[in-house]
Design a protein that fits this description.
Order of helices and strands of chain A: EEEEEEEHEEEEHH
Oligomer: homodimer
Radius of gyration of chain A: 19 Å
Distance between the termini of chain A: 43 Å
Number of helices of chain A: 3
Shape of chain A: elongated
Strand content of chain A: over 45%
Strand order of the largest sheet of chain A: 1-2-3-9
Largest interface: A-B, 59 and 58 residues
Largest sheet of chain A: 4 strands, mixed
C-alpha cells in the first residue's frame, strides 16, 4: 500500500462568520494536488429527554432548504469552551431547561473530505423547567414529542437533518436495550 | 409568528471543484442580513449487504481528519444523473459488485444553515461479484463486516461519519423489525 496522503501546506482563502475555505496542498503517491475544503466551527446537538420519554425538538423555517424542519437544538461551541458547557448553554437558551444528568451520545463528522464539520451529541435527562431566554424575533418553536413518534418520523423521512437523525436513532437503540 | 425569512438575492462568490460559496441576502422580520453558505453537490451513499448480513464498507486515510476512517462507499451525483444510477455506478466502481435489489433508505441533509449538502442513502442486496474497476493509486480498502459488529462500532464511536452512521442504524432498525 502506498503512503498515506498528507497535507503539505494550507492557507485560508475565504473567511465567513461561521466557516473558512481552505486551500490544501496534498501530497499523494509522490504527486502534489490542490484541494479546497470548507471547514465549519464545531457544534453541539442536544437531545433533552423527559421522564416520560418525550424528546424536545425545535422547528424552524430553513430558507436554504425552503421548508420548516424538525431538528435537535444545536449551536456553535465558543472558542475555548468545552462541548458540554456549550450544550448546557444551548439547552437553557433555547428552552429554559436545565438537566441533572448529561451523557455524550457520540461525536460525529458530518463529512470527510470536501466539508469538515464536527458535532458532539449530548443526551440531557432530569430536566427542570426554568425561564426561556430565547432572543426576540427568533422564529424557533420548541416541541415535545414522544420518542416513538420521533423515530417514526425519521423512518418516514420527515426528519432528515443528519445530527438529529443520528441522535434519535441512538436514543431508540439505547431504549430498546434498556440503557436509557 | 413573524413571516418566514426568505432569500432576496444570492450570488456565488467562490467556486471550488465540488462546492460553491454563496452570499445570500436574507429578509427576516423586515430586516436584511447577509449570510454566507457553502453548498456541496449532492452525493449518494451505498450500503451493500450480503445474504449473510455482512456490510461492505470502505476504509481510507482522510488527511483532513488525520486518520483512517470506515465509511459507506459514496460519490457525487453527476449533473442530470438520477441518484439511483449514481449509486449503481459507485458500487460497481468501488467493489465490482452489482445488485439485483435496491431500496432508498432515506435522504438526508448533512446540515441546515451554514453548509448545504444532501445525500441519498441506498441499500443494495442480491449482490453479484464482478470485476473491480478502482482507479490505480486509490488507497481505498473494501471490507466486509458483520452488521452486528458494524453497529457496535457505531455505538462505540469508532465509526462517526454521519451518512455512514445513519445508514447503519437504519439497517439495524430494519433488521430488528424483520424488514431487512
Amino acid at each position: 500500500m502506498s503512503e498515506d496522503p498528507k497535507i503539505v501546506s494550507q492557507k485560508t482563502i475565504f473567511k465567513a462568520k461561521l466557516f473558512e475555505v481552505k486551500e490544501l496542498k496534498i501530497e499523494r503517491a509522490g504527486k502534489q494536488v490542490v484541494h479546497h475544503t470548507a471547514q465549519r466551527h464545531p457544534t453541539v446537538s442536544v437531545f433533552p429527554l423527559s421522564d416520560d420519554y418525550e424528546l424536545y425538538l425545535v422547528s424552524q423555517y430553513r430558507y436554504m432548504l425552503g421548508k420548516r424542519t424538525i431538528e435537535a437544538m444545536a449551536g456553535f461551541v465558543n472558542k475555548g469552551e468545552a462541548p458540554l458547557a456549550a450544550a448546557k448553554r444551548e439547552l437553557e437558551e433555547e428552552t429554559g431547561l436545565t438537566a441533572s444528568h448529561w451523557d455524550e451520545l457520540t461525536e460525529i463528522e458530518l463529512a470527510a473530505s470536501v466539508f469538515k464539520a464536527e458535532s458532539t451529541l449530548f443526551l440531557a435527562k432530569g430536566l427542570i423547567q426554568g425561564v426561556q431566554k430565547q432572543d426576540e424575533g427568533e422564529d424557533i418553536v420548541v416541541n415535545k414529542i414522544k420518542l416513538d413518534d420521533v423515530v417514526n418520523k425519521v423512518l418516514r423521512g420527515e426528519i432528515n437533518h443528519s445530527a438529529t437523525v443520528i441522535g434519535i436513532l441512538f436514543l431508540d437503540k439505547l431504549r430498546r436495550e434498556g440503557k436509557l
